[in-house]
Design brief:
Elements lengths: L1 H14 L6 E8 L5 E4 L4 E10 L2 E10 L6 E6 L2 E10 L18 E7 L1 E4 L9 E5 L4 E10 L4 E9 L1 H4 L3 E6 L2 E10 L6 E2 L5 H11 L1
Antiparallel strand pairs: 1-2, 1-4, 3-4, 3-6, 5-6, 5-11, 7-9, 8-11, 10-11, 10-13, 12-13, 13-14
């Protein structure tokens, strides 16, 4: 009876609205391991994978539940990025590998500004890139870091609509402050600014840019 009551107590804690998972936080190629961190309520253990030209990077950490099934692509003149997030909901669990949105070479009729600018969080150009497949939005992708690794760079290209919901965030990790933003339009002048991204997105993008 005592063991049974103990089990019920544990289950009640796990089911409580305020229960917070512990998740591994790390960033590396293919697989990674690191220290365990305590997540906020409403978060799960997530892995964000990015694939570009056959190379895969992964970042693990606390991820909002609403973003656990994120999949999206960004296509630039100098690279194509496939991104996807998977999650699990037990302490320090390892999420399953994702399924990416396939890249498609069929033009979809959208042409977006195309540029890359170092030491800036914006870039303007009369050059364009022809979007293909599900990349039906124009995106400005800007990254700025201060601290140990100081980086400022901006890109314009094509993106799937899901990328536009990633938005922007400012966080500080181990002496480095990272600011990343996505601003989208349909090829015209209107701009869509998404909601806040999880910290793991910020970490992953830095692994590609540094």
């Amino acid at each position: 009876m005592t063991s049974f009551l103990g089990l019920l107590s544990i289950l009640s804690v796990l089911a409580a609205p305020g229960y917070a998972l512990s998740c591994v936080q790390c960033a590396s190629a293919s697989t990674c391991s690191g220290s365990s961190v305590t997540c906020l309520s409403g978060y799960e253990c997530g892995s964000l994978y990015t694939e570009s030209e056959g190379a895969v990077h992964v970042v693990r950490g606390c991820t909002p539940k609403r973003e656990c099934n994120f999949k999206g692509n960004i296509v630039l003149d100098n690279g194509k990025f496939k991104m996807a997030t998977t999650c699990c909901n037990t302490d320090n669990c390892t999420p399953a590998p994702p399924v990416f949105v396939p890249l498609n070479s069929e033009p979809n009729g959208l042409a977006c500004p195309s540029c890359e600018m170092a030491n800036s969080t914006s870039c303007e150009s009369s050059n364009t890139i022809q979007c293909t497949g599900e990349e039906r939005r124009c995106v400005l992708w800007a990254v700025e870091t201060t601290g140990v690794h100081a980086v400022k760079v901006a890109y314009r290209g094509c993106a799937t609509p899901s990328v536009c919901d990633l938005g922007s965030q400012s966080i500080t990790i181990e002496g480095t402050t990272e600011n990343i933003k996505y601003e989208c339009s349909g090829g015209g002048t209107s701009v869509q600014r998404g909601v806040v991204t999880p910290a793991v997105v910020c970490l992953l993008l830095l692994t590609w840019l540094l």
